[in-house]
Structures are given as C-alpha cells and as structure tokens.
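Dear colleague,

Following up on Tuesday's group meeting, I ran the structure prediction for the two-component complex that the binding team flagged. I've pasted the input sequences exactly as they went in, so you can double-check that nothing got truncated or mislabelled along the way. The structure tokens for the whole assembly follow below. Feel free to forward this to whoever is handling the docking comparison.

Inputs:
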Amino acid sequence: MTTDIESKNNSLLSVRDLHTWFELRKWGFGRAGFVRAVDGVDFELGYGEAVAFVGESGCGKSTLAKTILGIHRPTKGAVVFEGRALGKLKAQEMQWYHSQVGYVQQDPYGALPPFMNVQHILEEPLLINKVTSKAERDRRIHEVMTEVKMTPVDDFLQKFPHMLSGGQQQRVVVARSMIMRPKLIIADEPVSMLDASVRVEILMLLRALQQSHNLAVSYITHDLSTVRYFSERICVMYAAKIVEQAPVDDLLREPLHPYTLALIAAIPDPDANNARTFKEVPPGEPPSLINPPPGCRFHPRCAHVIQGLCDQQEPPSFEARPHHLVECWLFK
Amino acid sequence: MKLPRVLKELTHYRSAVLGLCIIGALIALSIYTVVTIPYDEAIRRWRAGEELWGDYPRNAVPEWFNLFAGNSLPTTRVMNSKDGAIRKDIQTISTDMRTSDMKFSFDYTSDGFPNEINLFLTAKFDQKKPQATMIWRTPDGRQIPLGDTTVGVAERFSISTDQRLSLKLDGRAPEVGLFAQPGTTEKGKTPVVQKGTYELIVEGLTFEKDSTLDAKLVVYGQAYGIAGTDHRRRDILLAILWGTPIALAFGFLAAVGSTLTTFSIAAIGAWFGGWLDAAIQRLTEINSVLPVLPILIMVGTFYTRNIWVILGIVIALGIFSLGIKTYRSMFIQVREMPYIEAAHAYGAGNLRIVFRYMMPKIAPVLIPTFVTLIPAYVFLEASLSVLGLGDPLLPTWGKILNDAYTNGALYKGLYYWVLEPAVLLMFTGLGFSVVGFALDRIFNPRLREV
C-alpha cells in the first residue's frame, strides 16, 4: 500500500495496517469466527492536525478510536505514537501515553462517573499521573475549566454530573481530556448526543483548543455536515476499512469513491423542494463484518461495479490526485 | 446519596423511624454496658459460683412481675452482723469463753413465701471452733429451735434444706413452714403468710481469747431486679446487657465481612473476566451447596466454640455466597459504561477501576441488603448458642435461652427466662429489617410504586 513518506517522518501518530478483530465464541469456548471491526487501516496524523473519520454506524470508527486509545488490543498491525509502537510500551510508558491522548466520548452523561463531583472527576487523571501537590492539582483544574469556559469555576466544582446541562457535561468531558495537556485528542462523535444549538459551541470550543494548543485531533463522526468546522483531512470508512482519504475541500468538492458520493448525496439539505424529491441511496445494507464480501467490500451495492475485478480482488490504495487516496478499482 | 438525605428520607417511613429507634436503643444499651461493666468483669461474674452469687435468689422472677401479679412477691433480704446493722451481744463468761449473741429482726410483709433461707456463719479461732444455737421467733411469739452447730472458718447453715425441721413443720419446706400462719400448714391446706416481725436468734459461744463469730442471714425473695435470676442464682440482666453488644458486634461484623468481600470479589470477577471470573463462579456454586449450620456445629463440636473463630468461619462461608451472582450481573452492566472506558483511556489501573469506579456505582444497592443481613447473623449466633455451641465464656442472649432450655424453664413456668432474650432478638430483627426495607425503597425507587 502506498503511504505518504513525507508525513511519516514528522507524524505524531501513525497507524499501520491495523486490524482489530473480536473473537466470537460458541458454547463459551468453541471458536466461531471473528468480527473484523477494523481490518487493515493505514493513516498518518501530524502534530496539530485535525482529521475526521466519517462513516455509517458499525463501520469500525469507534473500534479504531478505542484501539488507538489502548482500550482494545490490535490483532495485527501497529499504532505508533511519536515513533514508539504502542504494543512495545512498558507499563510506565503506557501511563505516559495515556496522559498524551485525550478522549472525548459521545454520551457526555455516561462519560462522567455519576457519583463524583466535577472536582473529583477532573482530579482523577491528575492523581493517576501522580500529581501529588494539591495546590498544583487545583491550579490545573482551574486552568482547564477556564479554557472550556466553565466560569466561575468554583460554582461548578462541587456539582455532580446530573446537575449540569448536556453542553456543560460535554465541556467537563473536554476539560478532563485536556487536563494532562495531551498532544492528541480523540473525539468520538462528541456532539451527536447534544442539542443542535449546543453542537456548534462544542465544536468551536474543540477547534479553539486545537488551535491554541496545537493539538492533533481525530474527529469521528457519521455526520459530514459538521466535518468542515474543524478538520483539514477526511478519512471515509466503510466496512472496517478506510476507502478514501483527502483534504476536506478536495473531498467535499470532488468525491471519488462511489460510497463517498452516496454519503455526500445523503447530507440533508434544508431546502423546501427536497420535500418532494427522493434521494438516491445505494441499495442493500452494509456487509457483515464477520463475513465480509470478497474483493471490494462495497461492490454488492456499487453502481459502477466492474465484474470479475471488483468482486474478486481487494482494491489497493490509489493516489488519484495529490494527497487524495482512494481504494477503488475505478482509479487504477 | 448523602447520609443526611438518606436519614431525612427514612423519616418518611413510620416503620423506619420505629426501626431506627430500636437500633438506637440497642446501640445505646451496648455502649452503656461496655462502659459500665468491663468485658473481663462481665466474664468473671458470669462464670462465678456461689461465692459471688450466694446472696442472690435462685430462679427469681423480675421484680416488675409484681405489677402484673397483683400481689407483692418478696425480695431478697440480707442481714450481716459484720455491717453493724445487727447488734452483737458479747459477754465474758470466763477468761477464754464468751457469748456472742446476735438477733436478726425483720419485718415481713409480702404475700409470697421466701424462696430459700440460708444462714452463713463465719468464725475466727485457733484450735477450738465456736458453737452456735439458732432459734426462730415468729410474730405471734412461737419459738422454733433450728438446731445448733459448731462453726468452722465459713459455714453454711442451710435452713431450707433441713429435713428434720421440715418434719416438725407438717412436712412443709422450712421457708414455707417458718413463715406460715399456724394451722395453714397441714396437709390439704394452702399455707398463708403470717405478716409481722420475725426474729432469728443466734446464740454463739466462743472458746478462745481472740475468737469471734459472725453471721449473715439471707432470706431469698421470689423476685429479683429487672431481669430475674437463673438456676445458678446469676442475675440474668448481666447476660441481657452483655448479650447486646455481642449480638450487634457479631451481626455487624459478619454482615460487613461477608458483604464487602462478596461485593469486591463480584466486581473483580466481572472486571477481569476470563478464568478468574469462571473460578469465582464455580466456587460460588460449590459454596452454595455447603450447609452452613452443620459446618458450624462440626467446628463447635470438634474444634472451638470461641465466638470470634465462629465469626471468622461465618464470614469465610459468606464470602462466596450467592450474592456474587446478583452483584456480578450488575457489575457486568457497569463494566460497559462509557465512564469506565474513559477511565481506562486516561490510564486508570485495573484495581482503581474496580474499587473507585465500579463499586461506588452499585454501592447503594448494597446498603439495604447489608442492613437486613445483620439480624440474620444475630439469629445465627443465637441459634448456635441454643444448640449448645455458644461461646463457653461469654454471656449472650443465646446462652440464656440455652440455659432456660436445659433447665426446663417453660416446664417450670419460668417464662421470663425464655421471653427476655427472645423478645430482644425479635426486636433486633424487627428494627434492622424495617430500616432495611425502607432503605431498599429509598435506594431502589422503582419499588416505591409497588
């Protein structure tokens, strides 16, 4: 597979041929196959760069995120952070890695332990990373709470998550992910559970933090309409693979992969005329990840399928245009 | 939920208020007992015999029985010549020989006869023992000779068991015959107490220069104290009082020990999964078919009956109790919650996740279970004692029941002996249960509608 050699040298995170499979068991011990949640993903993320991962539910976006975070172990392939492969880190280095990567989850209420108040929630990562001075912890908590605009800080510290609004809860989640001053934030659908009115605020906040701290962000979403708020690059995922990677404007203006085309066409457009039209969607369902179809995984639903090629050989990555990679035989 | 809020919510349930009052009273009683009667002192007194309890009546009912019985039962009367209350009349007969006369005079006004009469004689001498002659004088002036005796260092002159005296009194027991109105002691009649001033005259003779003679008359009553006495004259109140902290401590420690371990093990199993979880599950299943009571009886019979060892075994058997299954099912839900994932992502270690993130989430469910478990263990301890496997040293509620059972308390009509510990056990169970049920409704609001 072709990869961008140039970005590899100064990249913060590089994911190489990553596979995360989950074993299926039969009767509790027999092996019944694997769910191939992530099946051969390659990408690079530079310092301060924001990348969006787009795809429908079940395409492996979240599993990819959790594998990068170290929650799931990769079956094959490597996650390399600042030149160090994740699988080879010792316990202490792993601790350091965890402090370098922040995690913002989808459901802000579920992401906060309901029995801790904001002070305790924000203190946890500091305690785990052995920030022993109470004064230092308080200073950092105040700093990060101010950054996420939860002011006056002291009004919020004693509150429990259920006393906060959804937007405030998500700000606390962002504050928690930022408190160790990480170099990378993984935001897994950070706004999909929020009210439309709060979404933009949170996205703007993330964008502001990204720019002021030179953070790398991997923004995972199923909603292409929010991508533009903040990322430079988009990776489109389909059935556990990245099918297209390109700079945002490039991809939105000229999508190449048939799946991306369908995805962009499906963006709702608040136009009165749309009430009477019917959008074309690819027929069928996304494939099962236990038994993915041979060849290109999109071929059973693709309108441009090349018989004898698409249904037999998996397409490699083609650089159709500069910095625009696509896994589709149409661009051979 | 914070404690003040829980307490406030508890007051909405009248039953819980009652339960809290009972628990509060039991705790107050325990504290009072532990402060006023030291542990060693309690054990020493409970194991003591006649030397300590000699002045106490045997199997006396509590004094408050008088309120219900409608007549007045006698209480114990102790008169001692050493106290100075009884005048000792000493006259010199020759250089070495002296008389030592004592007159025990007392008013008897109860409707019931005494339980027993004993005269304790003590003497000081080198070679020659003093002699004493006893004469009983009734209010109507009759004089009944009770016989004479030579007095050793400490002699018990048991008037009640004097068979010859009994024959003189129409075959009635001396304590009845001596106090009955003349003419009521014959066969077929019911003896009636003659009220008035009785006198016991002890005419002593000492035969050495420094020899002295002292006497103590004990007219045992039928009623004693708050709780009555048992077959060994011991004050049951002592066991009632000390039984409270022991019962509470046993119940509380057993409940804490078994629930906390069960809870932690369930959390650890649910979090780590794999073979550890499987091993915990299998152990739980094996443990659930082990019979607890027979094992405890076996330990009590062959090894030790020390209450704290038994407590340890109760906790050990409680560790892998079926509660693990219930808690595990809850922990498996908690395990998948996003905040656990977040904690994992910011580097929380396994044990931190188990103890700091998983357990607090389920802890509210634990509290009602824990409170209702306490009386279960209190009953267990009492059951063991009733079966004769109680701690051999400690006075406990179960031991009272055991004594009552082996001495045929119910057959003899000594209901107080059984009822006192039984009522306390019932109140303990009631108090903790109603509070537990109310807590269950507070912590699991879904139950409120039912």
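Chain B has a mean pLDDT of 90.

Cheers,
M.
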